[in-house]
Amino acid sequence: MSLNLGDPFPNFTAETTIGTIDFHQWIGDSWAILFSHPADYTPVCTTELAAVAKLVPEFAQRNVKPIALSCDSVESHRGWIEDIKAYGQLATGDPFPFPIIDDSKRELAVKLNMLDRDEIGSAGLPLTCRAVFVIDAGKKLRLSILYPATTGRNFAEILRTIDSMQLTDKRKVATPADWMPGNTCMVQPTVPEDQLATLFPAGVNSVPLPSGKRYLRKTECPK
């Protein structure tokens, strides 16, 4: 299945470490980040899930629910979670803060095009790549990234993209290169000049350019 940004994200039922879920019902009125990893009990994946576990409060502040996936069984996930907790120095007695999907039949990996043909597991089958899907409360795909198996993800960057999307959903701004929350934003090119004072009472500064075109318009980050 080919998914484009803005497409409805397909619903599915899956077995997870918290039981059977209906994905759309599990999301509810929240956003979600669905991210796959190649295999349990592997080094980079362990660092990634430990990192996400520590960032769960940050995701919660943004009304985002994380959920992981690989082609391993629920039993494998549950055993591996203890290693993740140990590596991440997480409380061993607490429940793991997000579910992990059992896709041992590779149904979701195939459906969502998450298999890495260059990464073959011990059973001789392709493993899931490091895919990231961000889905909004309307169940639409808002962001999609694929990483190679040897490259761990920067989840702080994924939080930054969520901050940008949630801001620009509400305000007629765009976020420039290396933007961080609170930094200067760019006025969207579609905003006409006669609406600037109303929409941006803090003011707008146009960057002089050789072309003479007024498309680089900066404004304070809206609250």
From TrEMBL:
It holds the Pfam family 1-cysPrx_C. GO terms for molecular function: peroxiredoxin activity. It comes from the Eukaryota. Residues 3-167 form the Thioredoxin domain. CDD domains: PRX_1cys. It catalyses: a hydroperoxide + [protein]-dithiol = [protein]-disulfide + an alcohol + H2O. PROSITE patterns: THIOREDOXIN_2. Keywords: Antioxidant, Oxidoreductase, Peroxidase, Redox-active center. One of its GO terms (biological process) is cell redox homeostasis. One of its GO terms (cellular component) is mitochondrion. Belongs to the peroxiredoxin family. Prx6 subfamily. Thiol-specific peroxidase that catalyzes the reduction of hydrogen peroxide and organic hydroperoxides to water and alcohols, respectively. Plays a role in cell protection against oxidative stress by detoxifying peroxides. This is 1-Cys peroxiredoxin. It comes from Anopheles stephensi.
